[in-house]
Specification:
Elements: H1 2-11, E1 24-26, E2 31-38, E3 47-55, E4 58-59, H2 62-65, E5 71-76, E6 79-88, E7 93-101, E8 104-113, E9 117-119, E10 124-127, E11 130-136
Parallel strand pairs: 1-10, 2-11
Antiparallel strand pairs: 2-6, 3-4, 3-6, 3-7, 5-6, 7-8, 9-10
Length: about 150
Amino acid sequence: MAAMGVVAVLLVGCGDSATGFCEHQFREPLVQVVEAKDEVSGSPIGVLVVKEVRVGGYAADLRFLTASPSYGVRVEGDSLLCSVPCGFGTREGYYIITVSAAGYPDQDREFSARYRVFHGGCPSYNDGGIQITVELRKSSPPPVLKALP
């Protein structure tokens, strides 16, 4: 009898839902790369190569970053290719990404990412990911030398 009560609750759990279950939706990717450019010249960079993504200190599986609602990204080998503009990910937290492009060495970029909107209810959703510009430099800056007294 108790089992029938649970089934009844599940079936009416979400008014218009065909499945009876309330779903959570991500209306857009959390991280949206809106521009990529050379740090010095400002020249646009069309494709970024993302070699590693860490969220909250843990490596993210690149395949999950391409799931809906991502756009402009695809996994190639052990990298994520981002055709700018692109968007990926839904997990909030502190990100460290290793990124490069043709003619640019690997460089780490760090940022915090949170959705601006959470709407509870049925269905619930997140919206309003962050928009970032990635600036890359062609080479590492030369070491700073100090004269001895």
